[in-house]
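Q: What does the predicted 3D structure of Ribosomal RNA small subunit methyltransferase E look like?
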Amino acid sequence: MTAPVFLVESLAGVRAGGTLTLDGPEGRHAVSVRRLRVGEEVVLTDGAGTGAQGTVAAVEGKDRLTVAVSGLRTEEPPVPTLTVVQALPKGDRGELAVETMTETGVDAIVPWSAARCVTQWKGERAAKSLAKWRATAREAGKQSRRLTFPRVADPLSTKQVAQLLADADFAAVLHEEGSTPLATAELPTEGSIVLVVGPEGGVSPEELAAFAEAGAKPYRLGASVLRTSTAGTAATALLLGRTGRWS
């Protein structure tokens, strides 16, 4: 099994042969939940592409350990990047979508309050829901042993999503009535891919028209119709395989 990953604020100044202290919530999880002991391997990451590999050198109390750093590793920025615009699902299915897309390898997730979304983020609920999505991305990033965690953006309006699509090198809207399979779409070898996943009620004709004007065609994913909380994950896997990022 690969070494567990823990998040630290910064790895600036950390060098092989040095030590690093893990405390706070991450230290408590490592000591009291994972019950790590001296000599066990760990990876500490800043979530922005850099990781420090090492072994536990000392454990103090219930929430603090010292790591002897054996080496540093930096992930190259992914090419092409993949952003999923995710319409807001009902209940906790939003966190499910974020979790599985993060585990699969998405680079950024954009919450979108589509016209047909049953769930709408407003006021205090919006702040709490966004915080949950971001926390889910962090935890899933650690669980899947990633060094670069996906960015969960502030919610965007349909007009703002259209601008994001216009700036992409390849833009697509998942739609069951799309005439072209996503599996056969011509994809860029660099730049950015932006994919829109609509709500359970579907993308409205007005939204489809706005996205088409921005250069995003409708594509179908497969013969079956997936829920909004799983469609983004399936599409992410397909695109990462087709672009060579899973090779």
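A (community wiki): The structure tokens above were generated from the sequence. The longest strand covers residues 50-60. The mean pLDDT is 95.
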